[in-house]
């Protein structure tokens, strides 16, 4: 019963942050993409407190009225921008996991870590700004769905590892994802220097491979 209540509350939170309109025509999609990019630019230049829908509309080159057709306030706008960011991350992880099926476990880890870190550091300042925005929004349901997508992709991939098997695969995939998310967030949100960001990929591979070596067993023919 508690699970049902939480699911209902998450659904309500998502509905409250849903855009008023969903772009369907190509021109509308391009407009919304431009709005998202303008939002990030204003967020980076003025900070979360200084972000206004008026500034976003001006930078996009549309009227405030046009912007309000999609996003009635800056919270809904930020939620949509964060959703796009997380969806791209989940898509990158799902793609690399599909491509890595039936490979040795160490190669799987290298592929997945590279895809994850690349997605998070392609635009480092954007990622840092969105971490701060997520803390101000009711984004727990959105973050939870993204994490679940990545866990499912990892689980499906690791189940096919050519050389290793697991007694508790769901737990192993949860720990691997947590081992990637936690340090990455600490480095980016904490404003880690470029040399730390550059070293992140190799350190995460070492961390994940070391853990998986301990909790996996050789696959028998």
Outline of this structure?
With 221 residues, this protein is an all-alpha fold.
Structure description:
By secondary structure, the protein is mostly helical. It has a domain of 141 residues: Tetracycline Repressor, domain 2, CATH 1.10.357. It is 78% helix and 3% strand. It has ten helices and two strands; from the N terminus they run H-H-H-H-H-H-H-H-E-H-H-E. It has a two-stranded antiparallel sheet with strand order 1-2. Helix 9 runs antiparallel to helix 10. The longest helix is centred in the middle third of the chain and has 26 residues. The chain is elongated, with a radius of gyration of 20 Å. The N and C termini lie far apart (44 Å). The relative contact order is 0.11. The N terminus is likely disordered.
> How many strands?
2
Strand order of the largest sheet: 1-2
Low-confidence stretches: 1-13
Helicity level, as a percent range?
over 70%
Helical segment tally? 10
Biggest sheet features: 2 strands, antiparallel
Q: Approximately what portion of the residues adopt beta-strand conformation?
A: under 5%
Compute the gyration radius: what is it? Answer: 20 Å
Assign the CATH class of the domain at 78-218: Mainly Alpha
- Which whole number gives the mean pLDDT? 85
Q: What structural class results from the helix and strand content?
A: mainly alpha
CATH topology of the domain at 78-218, which one? Tetracycline Repressor, domain 2
Described by the principal axes of the CA atoms, the overall outline is elongated
Q: How widely separated are the two ends? A: 44 Å
CATH architecture of the domain at 78-218: Orthogonal Bundle
Topology order in helix (H) and strand (E) letters: HHHHHHHHEHHE
Assembly annotation:
single chain
